[in-house]
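Re: that chain you flagged

S.,

Sorry for the slow reply, it's been a week of failed gels. I finally had a moment to sit down with the sequence you sent. For the record, here it is as I used it:
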Amino acid sequence: MIELQHHQYWMNQALVLAEKAGNEGEIPVGAVIIDQNYKLIASAYNQKEKFQDCTAHAEIIAIRHACKKLDSWRLNNCTLYVTLEPCFMCAGAIIHSRLKTLVYAVDDFKTGCIRTVMNLPDSFVSNHNLQVFAGIQEKASRELLQSWFNNRRLYR
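Prediction finished late last night. Pasting the structure tokens below so you have them in one place:
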């Protein structure tokens, strides 16, 4: 029960960042990374448009900040919370950074590479055992994404 409360708390923080991304014209995805003591290490949101950088996904930015803060590319005892199932690029970064746990809100049936379109963490190419929890704050994340995409289509 305590773990679920922590997951909900941190996913809510990621959702706040996702809303910020959406308000800035970015696809609304937010991410936070915490350590084993539930201390915030890094937070980020999508910024592809802002930086004109295809790698500026919330997960990648958060991982970069966490590595810099911890002065290590290994995030062994850290947990990443993200509002949308990571894509191939982000799944690769998650595996290579050795994150202990990934918690995501909603499946991505177009590009999700954790459990939906592909299962990269459990594939033969993965050299790391990643704990995965999905569906935390799923409804809120799905509604945020759907609303953002619906509004974007209306004003094109």
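What I noticed first: The mean pLDDT is 94.

Talk soon,
D.
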